[in-house]
Design brief:
Restriction Endonuclease, 35% helix, globular
């Protein structure tokens, strides 16, 4: 069963919902959620999710590279986003609030730094998908963490759309 996006199950920050809607991608988010409902997360299920999402042209496991120069060396950290399309990065988290916050920080960096995503791609907005069956992360806790911590202390500015999708 494909979940339906209902306004009480969502939260938008800095115009994230509007950007996702303007790009015509909001209607495709239920397909991404359904792929995680049917096949779970993790790379072991990537090919099944990729098969479901290929017709929608969402790139899976979009690579990013964070890099800095120290006195001694250039150091880097590689990561990825669960999905990417037309300037929108998507992360799905069903395990921990702190991992959700890590995803948000990756999105923010990709939004600020045009060199993080390869081939001139941008992160115009981020989407965080959270299944309703988990204790954390939650929609409310994510909203609180963004407004109280990330925005206040780390100048978080990414346009963000969060959807706690129904799983029952």
């Amino acid at each position: 069963m494909r979940p339906e996006i209902r306004r009480p199950d969502t939260w938008s920050f800095n115009g994230g919902r509007d950007i996702v809607e303007d790009k015509g991608l909001k209607e495709e988010l239920p397909a991404i959620a359904e792929a995680y409902i049917d096949h779970g997360g993790g790379n072991q299920n990537l090919s099944e999710r990729r098969e479901l999402l290929a017709p929608l042209d969402w790139e899976q496991e979009a690579s990013v590279k964070f890099e800095t120069t120290t006195d001694d060396d250039v150091i880097s950290r590689r990561a990825s986003f669960d999905a990417y399309k037309d300037g929108v990065v998507v992360e799905h988290e069903s395990g921990e609030q702190m991992r959700a916050n890590w995803h948000l920080m990756k999105m923010e960096i990709a939004h600020r730094d045009p060199t993080v995503l390869p081939a001139g791609r941008t992160a115009d907005a981020g989407v965080l998908l959270i299944p309703s069956y988990v204790n954390f992360p939650t929609l409310g806790r994510t909203e609180n963490d963004v407004q109280v911590v990330l925005e206040q202390y780390f100048d978080f500015s990414l346009p963000l759309f969060v959807w706690e999708y129904p799983t029952e």
